[in-house]
């Protein structure tokens, strides 16, 4: 299943405005139809495949082909959209070598089509690894962004470090169940931290997106 987030262009400093609408579709074609309709209405889209922790080559190869189809369709239809990928969809659950090999292919395909790629943040066990991946690939492809989660207490520190490198950030509230030691558990705690991080983005951010 795929999700399509739809927003509107806000100002040049932003990649996307605050996310306005999620639309689910069962297939790549469903997602692309939604994306095409949104773009005709002068709205921007991010297509995100649901599911994670792929451990079989078959799952990974299927996901690769689906994202490559999305990128190709964006190019063919001249849609200014983006894809959002979870590292464990491309083999990080197997090992880093498998992921890097597959993500390199996606980045090359995206570069040829001038498509923006978001690197999604997953559960906290992968946070350090995902940031490391981002640094490795951002030097090769500037149309690459990373999601950060406001529910994690460490995110303020991560955001400060990433801003120093000119990173492109998508701020989310976070959907993973985490330990109280490392995460805000109450809605107010998450909301307060989200607001704090958002202010940091407005003050010091390069290009960024807000997802609520």
TrEMBL record:
It is an enzyme of class 1 (oxidoreductase). SUPFAM superfamilies: FAD-linked oxidoreductase. Keywords: Oxidoreductase. InterPro entries: FAD-linked_oxidoreductase-like, Proline_DH_dom. Transmembrane segments: none annotated. Residues 34-208 form the Proline dehydrogenase domain. Its EC number is 1.5.5.2. GO terms for molecular function: proline dehydrogenase activity. This is Proline dehydrogenase 2 protein.
């Amino acid at each position: 299943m795929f999700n399509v987030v739809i927003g509107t262009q806000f100002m040049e400093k932003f990649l996307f405005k605050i996310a306005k609408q999620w639309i689910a579709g069962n297939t790549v074609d469903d997602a692309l139809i939604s994306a095409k309709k949104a773009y005709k209405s002068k709205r921007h889209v991010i297509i995100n495949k649901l599911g994670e922790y792929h451990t079989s080559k078959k799952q990974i190869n299927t996901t690769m082909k689906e994202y490559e189809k999305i990128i190709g369709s964006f190019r063919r239809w001249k849609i200014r959209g983006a894809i959002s990928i979870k590292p464990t969809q491309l083999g990080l659950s197997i090992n880093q070598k498998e992921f890097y090999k597959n993500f390199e292919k996606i980045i090359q395909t995206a570069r040829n089509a001038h498509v923006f790629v978001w690197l999604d943040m997953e559960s906290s066990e992968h946070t350090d690894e995902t940031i490391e991946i981002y640094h490795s690939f951002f030097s090769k492809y500037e149309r690459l962004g990373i999601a950060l989660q406001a529910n994690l207490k460490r995110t303020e520190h991560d955001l400060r470090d990433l801003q120093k490198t000119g990173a492109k950030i998508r701020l989310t509230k976070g959907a993973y169940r985490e330990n109280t030691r490392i995460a805000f558990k109450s809605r107010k705690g998450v909301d307060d931290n989200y607001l704090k991080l958002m202010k940091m983005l407005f003050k010091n951010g390069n290009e960024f997106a807000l997802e609520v």
